Amino acid sequence: MLxxxxxxxxxxxxxxxxxxxxxxxxxxxxxxxYSEQTQALMPQAQKGFPVKGDVKALPGAxxxxxxxxxxPQSLNAWSKLPIDFGGVTGTVVxxxxxxxxxxxxxxxxxVQTDEPLKLQFVTGPAAAIVVQIDKLSEAWTASxxxxxxxxxxxxxxxxxxxxxxxxxxxxxxxVIDGGGVLQHGRGLYMRHCSHCHGTSGDGNGPTAQYLVPRxxxxxxxxxxxxxxxxxxxxxxxxxxxxxxxxxPGTYMPSFVPMLNEQNRHAxxxxxxxxxxxxxxxxxxxxxxxxxxxxxxxxxxxxxxDSKEDVIDNLRDFLxxxxxxxxxxxxxxxxxxxxTADTDDAVITPDVSRIADTPESRRIGRELYLSxxxxxxxxxxxxxxxxxxxxxxxxxxxxxxELYDTPGLHDVxxxxxxxxxxxxxxxxxxxxxxxxxxxxxxxxxxxxxxxFKILQHEQIWHxxxxxxxxxxxxxxxxxSGVAAPAEATPAATDAAAAASVxx
Amino acid sequence: MKKFWSLFFFFWxxxxxxxxxxxPARGWWFATEAMSPLGERIDGLFxxxxxxxxxxxxxxxxxxxxxxxxxxxxxxxxxxxxxxxSHSLELIWTVVPSFVLVFxxxxxxxxxxxxxxxxxxxxxTQEDGPQLEFMARQFEWRVRxxxxxxxxxxxxxxGDLYAVNEMHVVTGRPVKFNLRTDDVQHAFFAPELRVKQDxxxxxxxxxxxxxxxxxxxAVVCAELCGWGHYKMRATIVAESQAKVDEYxxxxxxxxxxxxxxxxxxxxE
Lengths: 502, 268
Fold this sequence. Notes:
Helix content of chain B: 40-55%
Structural class of chain B: alpha+beta
Oligomer: heterodimer
Strand order of the largest sheet of chain A: 6-7-10-9-8-11
Number of strands of chain B: 10
Low-confidence stretches of chain A: 1-14, 21-26, 480-502
Radius of gyration of chain B: 27 Å
Radius of gyration of chain A: 27 Å
């Protein structure tokens, strides 16, 4: 895969390839919005410093982000990230002359297509140069439509100030039709998703203001309904499941049969791309904000520092510390998103579901009400989602200030009503395993905590109880009594016996 | 110039005759073939009305052209014939259309009753009861089947099976389902089956159709319901009873999935 192949690549520019517009015929003219955190940085931290004498240019937060992710018209595929950008990766074997390349690919390449094949150099002296292939033989000998020397000269002339490119050498990594998946995903996302989730994935598209609950803001890199454990990111399958099934109880609809499998895959990759972009932006802003936000600048000026001092500090920080920070942030991002797709991240119960008997429901209800677990604190004694915690005034964990509105707030600063369990609507899916995972991992970003400390048997008892709540004759009062409609004859007997004993 | 206008008005009925003549051979036809018996009868009514309207159009246009032509060839000195207030003419153009309209009104009644009036629904649908609930909401269709072996209740039941945007029904016999909406007004429209029915908040509306041929049929929303109206597409999968049962049993095991894959499951 593209990603794994290029993991070793250090230089950024070299590792990104530009996914240009075109193909879908979408005449878009939109841009990614910088987050509030980025915009709260002092202007120099946002914009960086241009070349000054023999001092190299120092990119600011905006350019650091744009270099890696581009904008909707011209997306950058940063190969460090575990995203299927599309395209087939290969290497240059030999360059007999400036119009011919002998290549080697690790997967099948569409030899005959209607569109001319485009090849981009990913590494080496010609990195980022795009050439068009006239003819690709079965033995991977590519005749180019232009002369490499001319193309490289044109590129260098157009990009003065950048490192000049030269003729590629054997061993350079190339990609054919790179970025196809991302480009396709962008087209579909802009058409079907962006009006709620926003062009930048900030959950603030034009229709978003009319919706309760609000559409997901991907930029935290946090998704609520996952199959992965509490410390892991969302997996591809999880996003795919939400696009396929929708989220009952919210405005997120199912996109089947409108989007076929291939389209849904492209949308999943583009959503992950936006999520990683947002998360990267957030982390860069965190690196800079403690010392170089507008607020920090203000207090340093008050403390008597001169503005020049602060700017010199910023220069030093961008020149020295930022390199390490960037490497740490991007390694962390890549590894977390990669791990989320591994089997280890998925929550699999140790034991099969405990039989859904009145006894199991009774134990479940006891756990639900118990001091240690205390589901009722938020979900209420009758499961109506109206526990005492829903009326308190919470502190914002980031700013430390009290929220204006009572109730439980999620990381997106929206009030989260704990689920009303009597309605039988389960946003993250209604399979027993979905509820199990919800309890085990919690709901990421919300105040529903992880209960992974519980034994899996205990979780199953709670699941059995929760699934029975909508059918209780008197929610909150039934203990050990099954709803008549669903109990098997044997169970009904057991229930009757149980109530007699009481 | 007078002759030009009379010829101009003669031209259109000629075009109408010409297009009626060549339409079947060229495949200029409305929509696709109806995929249900009732749909065929609805199409029959449609083409009957189309036929009547075509004959009336051609006849009146020729009459108009003829009248214009008569005046065009008359000399300037000749007086026009004045027919206003002709009792017999007025009787003709009132009585003939009313007969046509009354005929259409009576002729379509049994199709309409079978399509819309519950007591005229096919007996089979009365015996079987509704097979599933099709709940429209912004912007998708939520499907609820009763637990296999039980009957559909209006309130969700513990064993109910849920799906989204996909309805599996048996071929070759009338199938009834309950159409509902969770929010605003939507409309269930299956173009190939010629079934269109609004889903109205607060109402449970039984809708039926019969699909003789196995296959997939499209459902769209036909009532502008919001910005995501176009997203409301679904599929009717018509198949044999065995396949529907298999689908439901798969749905049931998927819905009861507890995340633990045993060796037995993998063997299957």
